[in-house]
Amino acid sequence: MERLKYKVIESEKQYFDYCNKLEHLVFGRRTKAIDDEINLLTVLIEKYDDEYCTPYDEADPVELLRFLMDDHKLKAKDLAGILGISKGLVSDILNYKKGMSKDVIRILAGHFKMSQEAFNRPYLLKGALKLSDKKINALQTGKLKMAG
Q1: Cβ atoms of 45 and 10 closer than 8 Å
Q2: Cβ contacts of 97 within 8 Å, gap of 6 or more
Q3: d(CA 141, CA 37)
Q4: 21-61 pLDDT, tens per residue?
Q5: Radius of gyration of the chain (CA)
Q6: pTM value?
Q7: How many CA within 13 A on the CB side of residue 91?
């Protein structure tokens, strides 16, 4: 009896193995048999994604970036080189101290071959709530007046 080349994905390791295999097939020499293999792997990977992965449209951009860095074995210094920014700015982005600029979003989307929308979602920065709390307190005590 012939052993199946692929099975339903049951582990994260198997998932990443199949993703790597799919990437090699997509960018390699194409035949009808390889196209069939690509289609099968795509179905298996999508099924696993649907069951176990957080959709990109639900992940905050920093969480997504950290996941992608881990998946691609990138460190902050590597990301600084890719983005053409300082390691300090990368650190600020990863620690929610600074937001991602349009250029950073564009480069990340291109590098990771994703839609810019995945990185262009609102998320809270550290200190943003404190500033809002201070403004609210100042409004409540009359030390700050609303314009208009």
Answers
A1: no
A2: 91, 125, 126, 127
A3: 67
A4: 998 898 888 899 999 999 999 999 889 888 877 666 567 89
A5: 22
A6: 0.53
A7: 4
